[in-house]
Design a protein that fits this description.
Blueprint: E1 27-38, E2 41-49, E3 60-61, E4 64-66, E5 78-79, H1 83-90, H2 94-112, E6 117-118, H3 132-139, H4 145-151, E7 155-157, E8 161-168, E9 177-185, E10 199-205, H5 207-215, H6 223-232, H7 238-242, E11 250-251, E12 254-258, E13 261-265
Helix pairs in contact: 1-2, 5-6
């Protein structure tokens, strides 16, 4: 596990002076790291969340969000590793694994316009713009992702995703998520956009550039995003990242207070064992 830089502190007010007692139960969530091969190398798709949002306002993140109970619908047309395979990787039930994969594909579509689905098991849509209205209906929860796929005769392409990590929000925070991170290559022909009310701007960036922007104060990053970008920076191409064999262990950071600043430490850090 990487050691976080001491300069990576949490935004003011992110952690209350008096943590919830008992701690809040984390909500299940999914995040997708979209990557592509750019001219300078592997690039990741990043969104800067709108300032003032209840969680991670102003922070730079990957597309993602909470699991909708309807994401577990077993009627979804599915191609790729089955829910039992994903359940083994993420340490959860097959039903939850199904919901996580569906949430990952749905949230990616809602927040970036990228659709990891196709007319059949061997193809993926080359242009997701014709589904623009349906995208908004999904955001508004007017119908389920399973219904969207069925109405448009589409197959969810679970084989386009790779398990990457599992982060749980520290117990001191009032909003907690048990988030499974997935990696996915940008489909050929599709376009990732910023057409979401949750983002102020979006960009494709080399991981090293995004980390430099953070170091120079141009981006705010939370620990999972910082670590993910640092891990991605070890891969020169999408193929290399997609082929990486990763052990997906549940990572639960701990909060430490350093004067007026609050930061987190990860397992393996000397401060982790003595943190609250």
């Amino acid at each position: 596990m990487r050691e976080l830089p001491k300069e990576l502190v949490l935004p003011e007010g992110f952690v209350p002076a008096e943590p919830p007692d008992p701690p809040v139960v984390p909500k299940d969530a999914a995040t997708v790291i979209l990557v592509r091969d750019g001219e300078p190398g592997l690039e990741a798709f990043l969104l800067r969340r709108v300032v003032g949002m209840a969680f991670a306002g102003g922070m730079t993140v990957f597309p993602g969000g909470g699991v909708d109970p309807r994401d577990a619908d077993a009627s979804v047309a599915w191609h790729g590793p089955d829910p039992a395979w994903w359940a083994e990787r993420f340490g959860c039930s097959p039903s939850m694994a199904r919901a996580l994969v569906c949430a990952a594909v749905r949230e990616t579509f809602e927040e970036s316009g990228v659709l990891l689905a196709g007319p059949d098991a061997g193809s993926v849509v080359s242009d997701a713009r014709p589904f623009h209205d349906a995208r908004q209906h999904l955001v508004d929860r007017k119908y389920s992702f399973a219904q969207f796929l069925a109405d448009n005769n589409l197959v969810l392409r679970a084989d386009l995703l790779r398990p990457w990590a599992n982060w749980v929000t520290p117990v001191e925070e009032p909003r907690r998520y048990d988030t499974r991170f997935f990696l996915a290559a940008m489909p050929v022909g599709q376009h990732a956009d910023g057409d979401t009310t949750e983002a102020e701007d979006v960009a494709w960036q080399l991981p090293s550039e995004a980390l430099r922007d953070w170091a120079e104060g141009r981006r705010g990053l939370l620990p999972p995003t910082w670590v993910t970008l640092a891990d991605l920076d070890e891969h020169a191409t999408v193929a290399s990242a997609m082929a990486a064999e990763r052990a997906v262990d549940k990572i639960i950071p701990k909060v430490v207070r350093d004067g007026t600043q609050v930061r987190v430490v990860l397992p393996g850090d000397p401060a982790y064992g003595v943190a609250e």
